[in-house]
């Protein structure tokens, strides 16, 4: 099934917007140039109720429908990643070491496409809040926008977002009720021993073997403390210690990530990590300092809104193009904060073959932008139909 015809009509305009943003990536909260570009487009569409500077560079714009009704929020993230692009495209990043390697340029484009259509047609009641958010890639810009009061300030009743996904049929959608993405936490473990000559380990307190013991112990959390049906990842991703073959160092450092969907499981992991660190410290006569940083919470779709969103997606992609019960995955997303504040749903949009997200050769597929924009537009019209 095709996207909305009117949105398909300006697919070339959307491609131009997206490629401009791809050439001009910005990081974290400093998305000022991107926000300015967004505001220019919104004004061209005849949208005048525009609020800038939220969460430093975020934008919320309001489109009034016909007649009274609630406000539905549509969110797109704007920030890029600190990656050196390797696509070789003629519209590749002009900012060395910065790249739209996750498709946020495409997400912003899709919301702009929907905004243009909705501003032209106004075939809905109530209002639409267009949320252009900075700092999804670290910084939790969605949480900051919520803390700064956008849900109450703009009276947003429900909220939705889309993320592209390589490796899935272009223009297809998938989502799930309940947990769709995991909480993303980080741990830091510092081991302090007493270094010395590698030939005389008996005169040292070796932090290397202690660090290895901690690492091995952490791997038992999933295999021996997790219930069989629980979803949990504990990954040690860094171990740093030592300088040369014949010197036992003074210190070692371990770092990694924990992914969970349940606060009880998260707390179990924290408790077990602390116990392992304390036990290794005693067994190896070293000091072990453990620090656990809670990151984005799990992204939890509200069941009713997820079902509704899947129905709308079928109107765009057809029955075969939508999976409404895809189940969770272990990535993380700060849209979780918005879903904690209001009911709503998060969906994935297939963009076909190509490099994966966060890869230096990744590029958003412009052909799927009309599908995402059409989903947003149809979602508004279905959620808030005109009153007869």
Quick description:
The protein has helices at 5-9, 11-23, 32-44, 104-121, 141-147, 150-153, 207-225, 263-284, 303-317, 335-341, 369-383; strands at 49-54, 58-64, 71-77, 127-133, 156-165, 173-174, 178-181, 183-192, 196-197, 232-241, 247-248, 251-260, 287-293, 299-301, 322-323, 344-350.
Molecular structure report:
The relative contact order is 0.20. The chain has an 8-stranded mixed β-sheet with strand order 1-2-4-3-5-16-6-15, with helices on both faces. It has a 4-stranded antiparallel β-sheet with strand order 10-12-8-13, covered by helices on one side. A two-stranded antiparallel ribbon has the order 7-14. It starts with a helix and ends in a 5-residue tail after the last helix. It is 36% helix and 25% strand. The chain is elongated. The protein has helices at residues 5-9, 11-23, 32-44, 104-121, 141-147, 150-153, 207-225, 263-284, 303-317, 335-341, 369-383; strands spanning 49-54, 58-64, 71-77, 127-133, 156-165, 173-174, 178-181, 183-192, 196-197, 232-241, 247-248, 251-260, 287-293, 299-301, 322-323, 344-350.
